[in-house]
Amino acid sequence: MKTRFEFPFARTLCGVLALLTLLLAGCKSTPKVDWNSRVGSYTFDQAVTELGPPDKQAKTSDGKTVAEWISRRSGGGSFSIGTGFYGSHSAVGLGTTTGTGHPDRVLRLTFGPDGKLLYWSKNY
Question: Whole-prediction pTM value?
Answer without folding.
Answer: 0.56
